[in-house]
Design goal:
By secondary structure, the chain is an alpha/beta fold. The chain has helices spanning about 35-55, 70-80, 95-100, 160-170, 225-230, 235-250, 260-270, 280-285, 290-295, and strands at about 5-10, 15-20, 60, 85-90, 110, 145-150, 180-185, 190-195, 200-210, 285-290. The protein contains 9 helices and 10 strands. It comes from Streptomyces tsukubensis.
Amino acid sequence: MALSSTPFRVPGARGAGRARPVGTATRGTTNPNRLRRMDRWIAATHGLVLRRHGARAFAVDLGYGAAPWTAVELLSRLRAAAPLVQVVGIEIDPARVAAAAPYAREGLSFLHGGFEVPLPDGHGTPPTGGARGVGAPSAGEADGPVLIRAANVLRQYDEAEVAAVWQRLRRRLAPDGLLVEGTCDEIGRRHVWVALGREGPRTVTFAARLASLERPSDLAERLPKALIHHNVPGRPVHAFLRDFDHAWAAASPYAAYGARQRWIRTARDLSADWPIVDGRGRWRHGELTVRWEALAPR
């Protein structure tokens, strides 16, 4: 699906031109708590950066879908770690922005836009003619988003388009900002995401509800678009999932103590051969994070 940048006029924009939002509308499937695993990880690993920005920190929920639940939940979860953070939900479908209007409140706003992330000049204000936004933050509130979360957005795109989208979004980040892009199932039991800084991709995180997981490679169907087509013999991500399954099988005696203990043992053994960057504190949540370079297509 092609990315669009055709210019058009926004009614009420005082004659100023505004580029058409970049991207295409997703299916919009949204369920409450679908992104809880990703949100929990963001709050734990990026909360310090969000707190450091104080009232100038804002996070973007990009492509929140047909209902605003994920943006509402993101605000709640991030404020547990950074009480002053603001969340901006951005949707390419103006009808979805209008439907989200009743949920706008202090710290939570909604804007019409796409991959261009319509928060220009490093501030939290919408573009000229921003009447399409609901409850938008005021000028000077941030130097670009401290977080952009794009969940279940790029799955519908061609793999060849991913690098350009990543680059566009990374350029919108604050200097110490984070882009988190990934895919999960409809009720959030299985989730894989890539974390990127301005410099590029950093890590890949696998997260699951362990009680429903038969083997780690079951997460393969939720690989982000940048990796999913590379899960074939001879590619790094395929080798990683193979070793993940082997370590899981070897840790089967620990299942007697529960799936969590089996996962922890699996992660410890896997870290002998792969650059796992987290530890027991995250493993106990059913997470495991590996450096991007180890899984990157090549």
